[in-house]
Design brief:
With 122 residues, the chain is mostly beta strands. The protein is 0% helix and 63% strand. Strands 2, 4, 5, 6, 9, 10 and 11 form a seven-stranded mixed beta sheet that branches. A four-stranded antiparallel beta sheet has the order 1-3-8-7, with no helix packed on it. A hairpin with a 6-residue loop joins β4 and β5. It is elongated and about 55 Å long.
């Protein structure tokens, strides 16, 4: 199982970006998924999560500006980021709890994407 994040880039304050994360491999089901970020010199922090049923949770710093979503049929997750601020600059990581099955054996694990850089200039 792999998670591949994409969509980062350099934008000016006030602009938007949409991050995508594709899950691939022997996936039976995807449970909770989320986006985290890590700025230079800081710990990785939660940005947003969404359950398999569609319930969402956001960090206070991004509420009203960011929207997390998922496409279960395509094993994709997204983070729409609007009204970006310089303090949103970080490497963004996707995260998913996945049940993978090979033959008659299944296992539940948490996977991380490789990270995508988001830089917001003032």
């Amino acid at each position: 199982v792999q998670l591949q994040a994409s969509g980062g880039g350099l934008v000016q304050a006030g602009e938007s970006l949409r991050l995508s994360c594709a899950a691939s491999g022997r996936i039976y089901s995807i449970n909770d998924v989320g986006w985290y970020r890590q700025a230079p010199g800081k710990q990785r922090e939660l940005v947003a999560t969404i359950t398999s049923g569609g319930s969402t949770n956001y960090a206070d710093s991004v509420k009203g500006r960011f929207t997390i979503s998922r496409d279960n049929a395509k094993n994709m997750m997204y983070l729409q980021m609007n009204s970006l601020k310089p303090e949103d600059t970080a490497v963004y990581y996707c995260n998913a709890a996945i049940r993978a099955c090979v033959g008659y054996g299944c296992s539940d694990s948490v996977y991380w994407g490789q990270g995508t850089q988001v830089t917001v200039s003032s």
